[in-house]
Amino acid sequence: MSIKSAILGILSWKPSTGYELKKIFEDSSFMYWSGNNNQVYKALISMEDEELVTSKVIHQDNSPSKKIYTITEEGLKELKEWVISSPEAPEIKKTFLVQLAWSDMLSNQELSEILTKYENEIKSQLIMQQEKYRRSIHSPNRNTRESLIWEMISENIISTYNNELNWIRGTRQKLFENEAAEEKDKMNYQMREIENKKYIELISTTEPLSTENDALNLVALCWEHETHVLMIHYAALSEDFFKLKTKAAGNIIQKFINYGIKAAVIIPQETIQKGRFKEMVMETNKGNHFRMYESKEEAEKWFLN
């Protein structure tokens, strides 16, 4: 497959400038070209010579002129011929597998660390793909069938990352059975439902939450259970979370905002009235993504709003 086929596909959806094509490539999860200017414009020049596309310069009063490319009948014909051709087998290119192949030279701790780093990277990618799917970035949606096709493409990509996470966990379990058992018990949570709305209730953790990576783990947990709603009990948070100078709260809350998570912290009444918490509660409860409440009932009421 060449970049020309991908460009023809995009132009069959809508006329675009070279810059717009570049942005679509950059944001796409499956059109894997880098989308750098040389690639895109070199292909467009060649395609125009082959009469697969035409271009028109649009002059703008307060901005530079722009060249818009449109697919031709010949371009549509070539695109269909490629779409209907025999599909290629998927390529498996995973640099991590090459690293792992020679990892027997590492200690258990070192091996565990590279697995953790890879797992965190996959979690980040999974969260990003879920967010793209939620926003339907660069998806044509011209009719029901096309929308379903693009939805299934997103599901294919998301399932790939989920399968990779399952493989990492299985690998870790076989290599370090005792450590795997400990990892499983790190977060004590329950799935809840109110008026057909699912949420996760995080009751406790072996290590109190305090870092952005902890927030990403919670976001990944939400995606895993197909919910954007999270309830966190006071005991699961570190003391640093409630100290403004550490910025722990701000960093965690920002991650929830970035990934569209609606989170509430349940704080005991005797604690929420203390001076050091009052100011934070008043400030956070102005937002739409993160709030603090004295009871589960108050939090659930907010979840339903």
TrEMBL record:
Top-rank lineage group of the source organism: Bacteria
Listed name of the protein: DUF4180 domain-containing protein
Transcription regulator PadR C-terminal domain mapped to chain residues: 92-175
Native source organism of the sequence: Desulfitobacterium dehalogenans
Domain DUF4180: residue ranges: 195-302
Domain Transcription regulator PadR N-terminal: 7-81
Pfam families attached to this UniProt entry: DUF4180, PadR, Vir_act_alpha_C
Top-level taxonomy: Bacteria, Bacillati, Bacillota, Clostridia, Eubacteriales
